Amino acid sequence: MLDTFGMQSQDFVLPEDLALDKVVQEVPSGIEPEHLSFLVSMCGQENVSTDTYARIDRSYGCGMIDSIRLRRHIIENLPDVVVAPRSQAEIEQIIGYCNEHRLPVYIFGGGSSVIRGFEAVKSGISLDMSKHMNRVVAFNELNQTITVEAGMSGPQLEDLLNHAPEKLGAKRRYTCGHFPQSFEYSSVGGWVVTRGAGQNSTYFGKIEDIVMSQEYVTPKGVFKTQDQPRAATGPDFDQLMMGSEGCFGVLTNITLKLFRFQLQNKQRFCFMFKNWDDAWNAYREIMQSEFGYPSVFRLSDPEETEVAMHQYALAGTPADTALKLAGHKPMQKCLLLGYSEGECGFARHIKGKIRSLCLRRGAFNLGPMPVRMWEKGRYKDPYMREDLQDFGVMIDTLECAVTWSNMEKVHQAVREVVHSRPKTICMTHISHAYPQGSNLYFIFIARMNSIKEYLEMQYAILDAIQKSGAAMSHHHGIGKQTAPWLEEQIGTPAMDVVRALKLHFDPFNIMNPGGTLGLDLSEEQKIKSWSMNLED
Amino acid sequence: MLDTFGMQSQDFVLPEDLALDKVVQEVPSGIEPEHLSFLVSMCGQENVSTDTYARIDRSYGCGMIDSIRLRRHIIENLPDVVVAPRSQAEIEQIIGYCNEHRLPVYIFGGGSSVIRGFEAVKSGISLDMSKHMNRVVAFNELNQTITVEAGMSGPQLEDLLNHAPEKLGAKRRYTCGHFPQSFEYSSVGGWVVTRGAGQNSTYFGKIEDIVMSQEYVTPKGVFKTQDQPRAATGPDFDQLMMGSEGCFGVLTNITLKLFRFQLQNKQRFCFMFKNWDDAWNAYREIMQSEFGYPSVFRLSDPEETEVAMHQYALAGTPADTALKLAGHKPMQKCLLLGYSEGECGFARHIKGKIRSLCLRRGAFNLGPMPVRMWEKGRYKDPYMREDLQDFGVMIDTLECAVTWSNMEKVHQAVREVVHSRPKTICMTHISHAYPQGSNLYFIFIARMNSIKEYLEMQYAILDAIQKSGAAMSHHHGIGKQTAPWLEEQIGTPAMDVVRALKLHFDPFNIMNPGGTLGLDLSEEQKIKSWSMNLED
To answer: What is the CA A244 to chain-centroid distance, rounded?
Structure first.
């Protein structure tokens, strides 16, 4: 970073702005007294709040745009009231009432959206699912499933499953297998409605593979899918509701498939390839060879590998020297790391096959240590964003999905856009893999102070992703941020289906209105100039 | 059979009815001359037929009810005309025309439906996709995908893939991994719209796991899903269109994920368990142990195992004697057989783990021979139905999907219904497995002559399946046969979504009308008395 930005070490001594000052601004709630009375009578005074801080907290997510706005005390798009329902019955009453009175409803799960998922653009009510709607509904060990309320957090779920014998009366310990980078602050409901992915998804699957059934409260009534392992009984309603991002109704509970807890079988591996072409073809080959999939499986492109050499404490070590001697060059070499899981022999076999395939492709075996380093930072690294901002450096991440035959085109197109701005870093990795393709995850880092400039970069990347034929998101979802790019990517006939479903479930557009999923884009959103007028 | 039905060997010497006589009846076509002219001008005279035989052939499937009706010369529900379009452009023109003139459209793929899937209940036009719409559209070896037209047959596809180097210019040989019992006479389009399953689905997945993208011509226009390995961009449109059974539009082409052809790695196994409880719990345990899934994986219940002893030539062999000595009793013991596939070490590891798990549960190792016997008959066994009818014996199969915790309830409920009729065989097996549950496949065999009695048995089984909480189908689909049971199983809110989608894609109900998927059930269908008035 010092090199790229022409910064000195002393530039990182005195922060420009620690942003620890309180956001003092009071924003009056516009809620009608009779609506407030109804909510209080329904959920109790202690579960209804019009306090400004609570309303900011339940409308802003964890995206870069959220962080930037808070740092600059830009407060917009707040709900009038935050309500924490205590049961599905209360949610049914509230949705019925809001439908009747045309009150917008936003749903807060864990608050970790990076795509302005639950931002209360049209004010109204924010339903806070995290306070009460976080209980176990049922546990079925024969089926290896658990049913939980949508507001349950990742760590709460995982703690229950890991200690299933003590906490659920089970015979074994389990895991959900879903560990997004946002794990600590994400909710099960958020995973599901956005089609999230955990960092171990290559083995466990994305959340849409892990979900068995769901229950929603929609303006049209309760909608519950079936607990069946598979069926040939018409469309798959689970796959139709997942990705609805709060626009069809409130997800109240989810039945998840479970996996056995057998972390003791974890098999770590790390290899360095001489160039990107060898690296991603080996990576693809591993996914197409049918010996089972690794769990964590991450490949960094040359630019990211340079950062990784420092991040995983490889730079300057004997391994670094050995790499140089073996002809691995800076800005060419590519780091692959991960681990396999599952039954012991299965995990070992996968690691063995990966090793021989990588060595055959001329890779250098770096052993398990870099993986351990990655594991240490897997949830914490994103917080560096805040520290970097203290020193005037902006960082953001954008991601998409690609087929193998389109991967390089997308990779190059986005890198070109980022590098068209001087002194800007563009790191890329693949971290979720399939036999037919993968995700692509871009991180741009720049010394940047202007919101407008930041948004122009973000929008240019989204444009490049769309124009090069990738899916606009692999696991962040669409929200209000990426919404203007959705229709052109999935096509108008597909958007028409989303609109037909919206009309079916939510005819008065009370659920998460304000552009989510491209359903009711404002004129500004349509021309992709939304938020561009935020004061720098 | 001799024992159960009180029949003698000589009863199987002289057939009661060989049913080789020609169905001579002429049924005049009701098509308006101007519609016929349009179709001829569009597709050419040679691709348009009003011949009675062609119309029967393209309306009747391979269900027992189809066989019974043909044997008794009961000809009903014929289309007015059979048209074989040559391109998607022609299909677009035809669907536009039919939508304008409100002409019913039925779609014929391979003709192997067993649920009255494409029966032309409202007459109109039958689109024969098998004649021309059976070409390769694209092959992408980097992605391991192939795009084919919907009318391509299973054997045609598999032949292309197995000989990909010669026929597609590929580097490797491939397989589609989808081998339903109807393989020889099924079409790719039929697999997809019904959510079919191959007999190897436990490893390769059901067709909904194998499909990458699809293109439909609907009355609303062309609807094409995206080629992406995964996405978080709203609902999954592939999973919404699969299961539409011709009610939303005409599936014209499909992109399928491919697997490497490595049959040389096949690892066969066969075990006998002492009782059903041990057997299905071992089977479940195998699916939940995370060492990878076998490909073919079939477990017969005690009654089916008795038949299997003869079918796989085990009865009277030294193995049979050894089983008896080891305490395996008739009508208690259960046969498990299958094989693993994929990369060599992966396949071996799975077989090894299955062996040790089965032996630990007290199973007897029968070696690979019964599997070879099963492989010989895997596509041919169903034809026995015709021979049995020659001698007055009826046989039919019904299937459903269950969770493990509900499996025994469904198994017992259906067996009870079948056995409530004296001298009736009820064989059951599990042949498609998941960690959370499986299918259940029922075969009833009876000396029976009355259509009414046959249908009463079928309807009673469907009732039992629904009431005990199973999914009405795991892979046959719903069609017009199972349609009256659908809404009560999936629930009215889910049916309302199907109806909303139907209205969106096909507002004038021209696509596969007449009860399919429960969309426009007749009064007779609603009270489950449809076809009951067929003459015996």
So the answer is: 15
